[in-house]
Amino acid sequence: MADAEQQITQDIIAARHPFLEAWQMFRQNHAAMTALVVLSLIVLGAIFGPMLYPIDPFEMVWAPFSPPGVDGFILGTDYLGRDLLAAIIHGARVSILIGLSAAFVSVFIGVSIGAVAGFYRGWVEEVLMRITEFFQVLPTLLFSMVIVALFGSSLMMITFSIGVVSWTAVARITRSEYLRIRELEYVMASRASGSTDAKLIFKVILPNALPPIIVQAALMVGSAILFEAGLSFLGLTDPNVVSWGQVIGSNRQYILDASYTVTIPGIAIFVTVLCISLVGDGLNDALNPKLRQR
Q1: What is the per-residue pLDDT across 235-279, written as a single tens digit (0 to 9) for each?
Q2: Which residues pair with 77 in a beta bridge?
Q3: What are the φ/ψ torsions at residue 266 (nearest 5 degrees)?
Q4: Which domains does the chain have, with CATH numbers?
Q5: Radius of gyration (C-alpha) of the chain in whole angstroms
Q6: What is the pLDDT of residues 180-229, one digit of tens each?
Q7: Nearest-angstrom CA–CA distance, 230 and 107
Q8: What is the distance between the alpha carbons of residues 255 and 159, in angstroms, rounded to a whole number?
Q9: pTM for this structure?
């Protein structure tokens, strides 16, 4: 009896708070919850790790290519005798920061273009969607390389170069949501009451268009981390900034002699991106009303 009453109470609360209902759905996804826990530990390690393990990742602390576990170095040393664990910990900060920042840039551009296109339609939609298609067919890696070559390989420019080539999916998702929501009764009533276009776009429609945008943004964080790793592997990032991709790129020529110097940061990238993908899938299942009804 008590369990039934508790369930009824939870259902009432969920009905009043859609995001609470989504959280309850998300918690039932064991894979997504496990990924969220692991991802939280990675983020906490990136934030507090350098304080708990205060070793400079650029400092030569021991003989080159000391294997993991030898001489007190948990992950060993690289080709210059630098502590690989210190590089992984400090690199986590940069890689996650780039992933989050690049995703923010992509979402900002994509939502702006998609919202305007979906709201105004007509020639405005036509022009903006043709621009979106143009960026969609561009070779993203080549375009990003051109940006880095022209404007430098600073952390800010790397982030911008990733974000500016990755917004097209967000724009299409946002446009489709705006096309659907703009025809709903509450939007038409708000328009009839004299609401400005800016209020309709940002205060009336956008909050209800957020769920698929949030899911796409989560997935884009992982894509941005992989993208940065690719640029680092090609030697296009700042060698004075440690990231997981930079660790792989600087040790790639020694993969046969000391494979751990490449596989360990590779595993860090793999686990992080996998967790982000699982969390994104869990968010999609929780926030998608069609899937919630199943």
Answers
A1: 888 888 899 999 998 888 888 888 889 999 999 999 999 999 999
A2: 83
A3: -65, -40
A4: 31-292 (1.10.3720.10)
A5: 23
A6: 998 888 888 888 888 888 888 888 899 888 889 988 999 999 999 999 99
A7: 21
A8: 27
A9: 0.86
